[in-house]
From TrEMBL:
Reactions it catalyzes: 3 Li(+)(out) + Ca(2+)(in) = 3 Li(+)(in) + Ca(2+)(out); Ca(2+)(in) + 3 Na(+)(out) = Ca(2+)(out) + 3 Na(+)(in)
Biological processes per GO annotation: calcium export from the mitochondrion; intracellular calcium ion homeostasis
Stretches assigned to the Sodium/calcium exchanger membrane region domain: 119-228, 406-556
Keyword check for Mitochondrion: yes
Localization: Mitochondrion inner membrane
Positions of transmembrane segments: 95-118, 125-144, 150-173, 185-204, 210-234, 344-366, 372-391, 403-421, 427-449, 470-496, 508-527, 539-563
Record-linked Pfam families: Na_Ca_ex
Keywords carried by this UniProt record: Antiport, Calcium, Calcium transport, Glycoprotein, Ion transport, Lithium, Membrane, Mitochondrion, Mitochondrion inner membrane, Sensory transduction, Signal, Sodium, Sodium transport, Transmembrane, Transmembrane helix, Transport
GO terms under cellular component: mitochondrial inner membrane
Protein's name in the database: Mitochondrial sodium/calcium exchanger protein
Length: 568
């Protein structure tokens, strides 16, 4: 599951899960009614009815702002910006197209932020690789508490599976054609097809029993054991072949492995090293700081085309902010990227970023004893540690505890990724309200996109760095974990609370369209990849993207009633 990307804190994972359930609530039927929000108990004074937020478009332009501000269903529990209030309260009705356009551009810039963070500061990608399925798992655990959202949780897992196995896998093949490892590919896709079949049966019968939930978890344990056993057998065969080979004979690599190694070596070349002076002069501390905070290489700027310069202009603020807040330790460099003034500044700025981004800054503004905010304590403590570090170290030699900066970089870049991903999810949901997309579509497409944004960027980054096999394997390993552990553990927890079984209520035809699409994509890959001798090229990648576009068309046509089952 290497290469997958995780959101960094369990509290934030739970917020994503609650956002998913909030978005899906009330989606069990076509009618739009009111109900009591769990956030406003019946005994409270400020009890407010919860109305589907999409009804805002049915109101007069003068009433929309009050509706957005007073309806709990229109409120977001995470993120920094209230996009619905921005659209309906800060723009007059006649300027609604302008508001949507500005939000769309901001959405594109958020995607750019995610891309820059994953590419230039891979700390977060590495740190997040071990638990990327956490948002989906927490979403499933919360959603299975209600039979109306349990079926939609399964549909959301299906939607994420379709996205990852088509868009992400196809993007990897387009970015870097490669030869897939045959046995791991067949193993993963067969296990995933079995998991999808189990879930399809659960939806068909409308319930998950104790034995069914245990079979999910048992299948995942069997999958992990199979992976471990296959890895051990492969290493044993490799050691045996090396023993029987002639002494001094270099290890033979396959074409793809040799290509990956050459590409990895090529991509690790630092463009700035070409312009290093032959005679080095001792830089002063201010010069080191200014040079370390400069995200622009002027020589490279002059040699690049115009479109690259335009994109670079948009990247510069993001890259400067990341340089200022994210420590970057490079073990391949002699000094391990030790920049004494900047790293000391990181000891103040990075912890401040941590407390101001964790749970959208709720922890940072909390006042101790009602007198002093936590962010102030962090600044004082960070300044003290930075002062000691500055006077106890030198510019030329990294300290013994330099590895602590790597860990700090892991956390900071991970939280930056989470902030951007959270805003993406919120703005997608807001645009869904504006365009009157149903809760089902939001749960099965937009939220699936939001949960898979990090996956795509981390896998694409791995592919560009010369590890397409690792990225491709992550596409299947992560979603196997999500569906087996998410469904199995979610249902098992509900059964352990006294329920004999977990009821599933699929929301109409769209869930079955998703299940059929995912099964069809897996069957097509199972047949086409071996036919190509496991050589995945750009044609295969574009075919997967075309498949996903067709799926979106069918899903939207189903949502708007163009495709529907005839009543008997």
């Amino acid at each position: 599951m290497a290469g997958r990307q995780l959101r960094p804190h369990w509290v934030l994972h739970l917020l994503h899960a609650l956002l998913m359930v909030e978005t899906m609530s009330g989606a069990s039927g076509p009618s739009i009614g009111t109900h009591t929000s769990p956030e406003f108990p019946a005994s409270g004074v400020d009890q407010s009815p919860v109305v589907d937020c999409r009804r805002v478009c049915n109101l007069n332009a003068s009433d929309r702002c009050d509706f957005i501000r007073t309806n709990p269903d229109c409120h977001s529990h995470s993120g920094y910006l209230d996009y619905l209030e921005g659209i309906f309260c800060h723009f007059p009705g006649e300027l609604l197209p302008l508001a949507i356009t500005l939000h769309a551009f901001w959405l594109l810039y958020l995607f750019l932020i995610l891309g820059v963070t994953a590419e230039k500061f891979p700390h977060g990608v590495t740190f997040l690789a071990f638990g990327n399925g956490a948002p989906d798992i927490f979403s499933a655990l919360v959603a299975f508490s209600d039979p109306h959202t349990a079926g939609l949780a399964l549909g959301a897992l299906f939607g994420a599976g379709v996205l990852v196995t088509t868009v992400v896998a196809g993007g990897i093949a387009i970015l870097r054609p490669f030869t897939a490892a045959s046995r791991p590919f067949l193993r993963d896709i067969i296990f995933y097809m079995v998991a999808v079949y189990l879930t399809f049966n659960a939806l068909y019968f409308g319930r998950v029993t104790l034995a069914w939930a245990l079979s999910y978890l048992g299948l995942y344990v069997f999958y992990v054991a199979t992976v471990v056993l296959c890895t051990w057998i492969y290493r044993w065969q490799r050691r045996r072949s090396l023993i029987h080979s002639m002494p001094g004979t270099p290890e033979m690599l396959s074409d793809s492995e040799e290509e990956d190694r050459v590409s990895s070596t090529t991509n690790s070349y630092d463009y700035r090293e070409e312009y290093q002076p032959l005679l080095f002069s001792q830089e002063t501390t201010p010069q080191i700081l200014v040079r370390a905070l400069n995200p622009l290489d002027y020589r490279k700027w002059r040699n690049k085309p115009a479109y690259w310069r335009v994109l670079k202009v948009f990247k510069l603020p993001v890259e400067f902010l990341l340089l200022l807040t994210v420590p970057l330790v490079d073990p391949d460099k002699e000094d391990r990227n030790w920049k004494r003034p900047l790293n000391c500044l990181h000891l103040v700025v990075s912890p401040l970023v941590l407390v101001l981004t964790l749970q959208s800054g709720a922890y940072g503004v909390y006042e101790l004893g009602g007198l002093f905010p936590i962010w102030g304590v962090v600044v004082i403590a960070g300044t003290a540690v930075a002062s000691v570090t500055f006077f106890a170290t030198s510019n030329s030699k990294p300290p013994r505890l330099h590895w602590i900066f790597a860990f700090l970089g892991f956390l900071t870049s991970a939280l930056w990724i989470n902030v951007a991903a959270t805003e993406v999810v919120n703005i997608l949901r807001s645009l869904g309200v504006v365009f009157r997309l149903s809760n089902t579509v939001l749960g099965l497409t937009l939220l699936a996109w939001g949960n898979s944004i990090g996956d795509a960027f981390s896998d694409f980054t791995l592919a560009r760095q010369g590890y397409p096999r690792m990225a491709f394997s992550a596409c299947f390993g992560g979603i196997i974990f999500n569906i087996l552990v998410g469904v199995g553990l979610g249902c098992l927890l509900q059964i352990s609370r006294g329920h004999p079984e977990v009821k599933l209520e699929p929301d109409g035809l769209l869930v079955w369209v998703l299940a059929g699409t995912l099964g069809l994509s897996l069957v097509c890959s199972l047949v086409s990849v071996p036919v190509q001798c496991f050589q995945l090229n750009k044609v295969y990648g574009f075919c997967l993207l075309f498949f996903y576009v067709n799926f979106l068309v069918v899903a939207l046509l189903t949502e708007f009633g163009v495709i529907r089952l005839k009543s008997v």
